[in-house]
């Protein structure tokens, strides 16, 4: 077959009109024909002959140069008039060939009402043989696709009522099948080859054999992967697993993986495995991951996607630095991996039976104020990102110091006793507590006693002696407040006055001598009684101490139990929160699968959406159409995106967002970034000089596709990206 014709500077372009004596194109009737297809029996200009060089089925047709005798529509076998149309082979034939080479095929005799025109559009032939043209059916919709079957549907033709019949054809490479559908608008086709690209076409068929123009769609029997599952989710990594599509387990295939976070370009990779580990990710960030099946022939499935959010690390080493009566200071370390990420911390604290107090800070410490004295508090801290995402909670407990007794006062003092009192400290109205009193004189051990009241009488004191007295508040858990203290001095014993010092001395000596024996006995008895009293007090104090120790141990055990239960509840809350977030992501993923994240008529690849035009325009008008859609002409950033666009339906030539119209030879994308790499120029391209300043992608059957430069005023399809 001759090489495809391409435009050269100075030669005719599609906009030029034909000159007298030249043969016009049977398709557009306005441009000089350059080739005649003996299979189609149609003349083609440079534009419309292109598909005979790119579509595999049309590449088998016989092309010759245009001459006047060749366009008389004669059979190239016996030069008889072409009077019959073969629907099976989709070509014009003569009556003799209908009985020989095409015997048994689905054929129809052409009517000659008016001069008609045969056109070859792609690999489908549309017959327009009279003014009475049948309306075509609506666009083809894919109801269900498996690895070896497809269910198609189409809408009823406009302005056509009553029973309707449709001709449906499909095929890949050189194999073509055809069937007629009567009274319905859908068809299930089975026994397809897995991993092949098929062209499906539907036309309205009249009772006299006339047909409308064909409505076509192409798709591949490539089913996307299934059962996407995520495990080993960490702060900066996760692993994604999937299964091969049902029925394609033995078909050689690879997988194209794309992942991105909002506002960034997707990162792509190709793997032969059914799993992929993503690392070096940002903590607490949502990633969209898509997996596409890619066969050895380059055919791709639709991508299947899911959203995964990496774990946000919690604060580390939560510590209680100091505690007093009404405040406490806590601190923590910054979680790993957040050096470049904006974040802050949320602190919550409360005592049992109260609502939590919540505050935030960007530092790694905080002072909690306005606390109640002698009260246990539960404190939790979590990391919070700018988007509101929160980490798991870390927690601790602290107990504020009890308040000390207030206004310690010595109420009365005599020779051997003294009365002291104090006020109840603030904030303990609902808290069980008592007071511990200690008193001593210099050089002696302190006497310790307790009382639940706000006063006490200290007895068995020595006359004329200074005593120091301390009082503190004691909670049920054994916590002591700070000490408050005072001093007192007992009264000195004084004798009554006598008229004579000598008489007083005599009387005193007599008393001493007379009472010595009884005094010694009384002192001994008093000391024994005092010893017995101290022993009894000691035993009582020991019993009280044992009771308080037992109560303290019980309270400590109860505290430990409650703390363990709280830790379990916090862990359960964190687990439930994670499960809720995952379920929400799954709901969003299912909603995305049902509704799609791209507008209708657009196709998704990674985190981008792509639109293939249904009409043809110049490069500038194509870009203007993209801008009106909130997009721009496609910018190709990777080999995977190049492969994806090249497999976009049955595109042969489309505009892309590449031009050197500003500076000749300096190719830039539409976002003004220079073209560096990758480059997919065809051999010898770009080579159009100052005339060809816009880029297109040209389909090659190998599946890769190449770039060519072309005149910007040429009209063809385009692809938008957003």
CATH topology of the largest domain: Immunoglobulin-like
Compute the number of helices: 5
Largest sheet: 8 strands, mixed
> What's the Cα radius of gyration?
49 Å
Termini separation comes to 40 Å
Low-confidence stretches: 1-20, 111-131
Q: Please indicate the percent range of residues in DSSP E strands (runs of 2 or more).
A: 25-35%
Number of strands: 44
The CATH homologous superfamily of the largest domain is named Immunoglobulins
Anisotropy-based shape: rod-shaped
The number of domains is: 6
Structural category:
alpha+beta
Fraction in helix: 10-25%
Summarize model confidence as the mean pLDDT.
Answer: 81
CATH architecture of the largest domain: Sandwich
Plain-language structure description:
This protein has 5 helices and 44 strands. With 722 residues, the chain is α+β, with helices and mostly antiparallel strands. It has 6 domains: 94 residues, Classic Zinc Finger (Double Stranded RNA Binding Domain); 80 residues, Sandwich (Immunoglobulin-like); 84 residues, Immunoglobulin-like (Sandwich); 84 residues, Immunoglobulins (Immunoglobulin-like, Sandwich), CATH 2.60.40.10; 186 residues, Immunoglobulin-like (Sandwich), CATH 2.60.40; 119 residues, Mannose-Binding Protein A, Chain A (Roll), CATH 3.10.100.10. Strand 21 and strand 22 form a beta hairpin. The chain is rod-shaped, with a radius of gyration of 49 Å. It starts with 34 loop residues before the first strand and ends with a strand.
